[in-house]
Amino acid sequence: xxxxxxxxxxxxxxxxxxxxxxxxxxxxxxxxxxxxxxxxxxxxxxxxxxxxxxxxxxxxxxxxxxxxxxxxxxxxxxxxxxxxxxxxxxxxxxxxxxxxxxxxxxxxxxxxxxxxxxxxxxxxxxxxxxxxxxxxxxxxxxxxxxxxxxxxxxxxxxxxxxxxxxxxxxxxxxxxxxxxxxxxxxxxxxxxxxxxxxxxxxxxxxxxxxxxxxxxxxxxxxxxxxxxxxxxxxxxxxxxxxxxxxxxxxxxxxxxxxxxxxxxxxxxxxxxxxxxxxxxxxxxxxxxxxxxxxxxxxxxxxxxxxxxxxxxxxxxxxxxxxxxxxxxxxxxxxxxxxxxxxxxxxxxxxxxxxxxxxxxxxxxxxxxxxxxxxxxxxxxxxxxxxxxxxxxxxxxxxxxxxxxxxxxxxxxxxxxxxxxxxxxxxxxxxxxxxxxx
Length: 437
Ligand SMILES: NC(=O)c1ccc[n+]([C@@H]2O[C@H](COP(=O)([O-])OP(=O)(O)OC[C@H]3O[C@@H](n4cnc5c(N)ncnc54)[C@H](O)[C@@H]3O)[C@@H](O)[C@H]2O)c1
Fold this sequence. Notes:
Layout: E1 3-7, H1 11-22, E2 26-30, H2 34-41, H3 52-61, E3 65-68, H4 71-76, E4 80-83, H5 98-109, E5 115-119, H6 127-138, E6 145-149, H7 159-164, E7 169-172, H8 176-185, H9 187-191, E8 196-199, H10 201-232, H11 236-244, H12 265-278, H13 284-307, E9 315-319, H14 334-344, E10 348-352, H15 357-364, E11 369-370, H16 374-378, E12 383-386, H17 391-394, H18 398-404, E13 409-412, H19 419-424, E14 428-431
Parallel strand pairs: 1-2, 1-4, 2-3, 4-5, 5-6, 7-8, 9-10, 9-12, 10-11, 12-13, 13-14
The structure holds nicotinamide-adenine-dinucleotide.
Nicotinamide-adenine-dinucleotide binds next to helix 1 and helix 5.
């Protein structure tokens, strides 16, 4: 059992903190946002993530997990400090490391005994070395410390499961001492034979970007395949399934849709391109994936226009605002661009999301007309556009939808509705890569 402090209690920090406590460690989760800490101390979750409340409650009850806004004290009283603050996109596509560096300064000023400074935030290659230098310059006493890179691969929507049962754990270390302590921190995973990749810090930092960029490329690739399938009467689902039967390809991440979004792929692909540029490497494939992703949002808009060429005054019901199912995260969600595009064409947009409406209004579209149910949203609508693959939307009753709508137009940007049923109930429809089968 190790004493751990997690700085930054967002999607990654909160899930990781609770998960590390579940592994038997003693964990203090901290944040500069006092309101988040207050919520957590009242037993409320600041984010939506399936299974998170149970995990947090269980570990708070055992006394292994606590929350505090006193970051100084938390650093002083612990040995392993995980940095889990945001690294958003900077002006030129680079990762903005201001929060990470601010945290490193706080750690340096509270260095009262040996510490491990472990970066869980996604940071570009070279950051570990930068943090080490910064701490050496700013530490308040000559105590030892080690910097470790431990990128996180959890997916929003299944973050708890992903953290507790990861495909692999990556540890970028420069000392045996740090490696052995981290092995103890992750002991239950070692016992379960979870693959552990122990490497140097630059390799670890690059593994995260290479993985995310590769997945982004896969998504953009299948989206372009889907766009062609729509033109030639082919079925992208059959194509993806058959491709996935080839072990070299794998069937995962071959789901066409409105393009990737969220708080990771868009910024991580841009950051990798930027790091490449700084180092004289032109990431042409990743650049193409970014461009194809931006275009994909327009492709969805184009499908809506095929069904309703004149959008002026037309009521468009958007079903799904989150960038994917099972999360309340709307950062860089395709819905943002698509709603903006529809409004610029004169459409009247209404939206429904089972969880994410509050965040969409709070952070991005305060004026958006959000409704409390599917039926309320589609009443009198001229078109429905499905943007998130929520289970609730998979089960839509098409006859009921048709009865409520003004005209039966659907763009199913997640391919969750049965083409046979759309035909049977007389919808004019478009999906992604199955519109012409
Ligand atoms: N969200 C994901 O699915 C995911 C997955 C893997 C990796 N990551 C990476 O993890 C990092 C965190 O992402 P997130 O989605 O959890 O972000 P987030 O925005 O949900 O959480 C970040 C938290 O850090 C806090 N914070 C900011 N500056 C701080 C400071 N100086 N001191 C203390 N707290 C501070 C914020 O108040 C916020 O609560 C990012 O680098 C991201 O790329 C995210």
